[in-house]
Amino acid sequence: xxxxxxMRLRYNLIEDAVSVYDEEGIVVVDLEAxxxxxxxxxxxxxxxxxxxxxxxxxxxxxxxxxxxxxVVLSVPFSDVVTIGHA
Length: 86
Fold this sequence. Notes:
Helix content: 25-40%
Number of strands: 5
Shape: globular
Number of domains: 1
Strand content: 25-35%
Largest sheet: 5 strands, antiparallel
Order of helices and strands: EEEHEE
Radius of gyration: 14 Å
């Protein structure tokens, strides 16, 4: 268990044109686990956007909120990938 114990957090996708709000949330043990979930989700969203349109936005982010709606962590898409030469 983390510092706060198990908690239900919501993962809200914030983009330029539209935002998608998580109504159900996911139970995680701490904020590091919450960040891991958000990183994976952001990468999946970016990969799907890239497959469908050939592009993705680094301006998008996932805001993680507690059950009262307070943002406890924000994961910008620009922090999710490294762009450069392999």
